[in-house]
Amino acid sequence: MTALLGPPQVAKPQERYAAIARDYTAKPENTIIVSPDNRSRQEINQAVRTELQTKGVIGSENQTFQTLDHRSDITGADRAWAVRYQPGNVVQYTTGSKELGIERGSSAAVLSTNARENTVTVEKRDGQTVTYNPQRLRGVNVFETAQREFATGDRLQFTAPDKVIGIVRRELVTITKLSRDQITVKLDGKEGRTIAFDPKEFRSFDHGYAVTSHSAQGLTTGRVLVNIDADGPRGLINSRLAYVAVSRAAHEAQIYTNDARGLAAALSTEYSKTSAVEFRSPAQPKEQAPRSATPEVALKQAPTPPSQSLGLGL
Q: Are both 70-144 and 155-206 of the same fold?
């Protein structure tokens, strides 16, 4: 049984993120934060780090690393057109090309593009440049670089796998040692296994306090804090978001929103015909929901909030 209770609504995003950060740091063990989009996720991560450093939970000395963010705005079809690439992007080749001299599993930095001829020029790790038509090359992923600060004690999430190092995509870990050339992390779990990697060679990692609903799939934890802006895009704020976020929690979850009343309607948006999430306004009487193979979610009045709030029972 997972109980989800909504706190007082907080209209301003930054104030809401700060409230989430305070609640997280009060009980960080076995807790994750779920937010629907990357921008809010990153801002919440920063708010949590600030709170943790203030309390001395993580190291006070930050080190900056260049990490890779997947360009989710580029679809599979987009990757065939040079105009969608940007100088500075990093391209990873899952299949490679013998003709172009691009090894499978390698990466290269985009130097320039030619939209008229539909060509992309990249620089490989060995310094050699290659110009090719992206329509003729399959199995590529496109990333943009980002500068992020990390400290000892920080939580990380791996955003790509690496069989050699022993990294699993979306795995959550904690930094135990930190230097310019090596990051040592402890994996979650009873074994307490540790691994180390060179952040210049493997750059697919990010802060792991808040994750998107997409990245949260497959994760299970004791407590989940969920950030939902009721006025957000319906492509993100829908019944699937509620189901994925709530079902990550084994025991307890909380929703933080800008509009408690409007949230019920926003989350009633169907993501697909197979969605098994039911929503009711807090003012409506509780009804017996039909049984389903997947969990069901219902809105109800939170117990004793200081202002209007939202609660969910699962």
A: yes
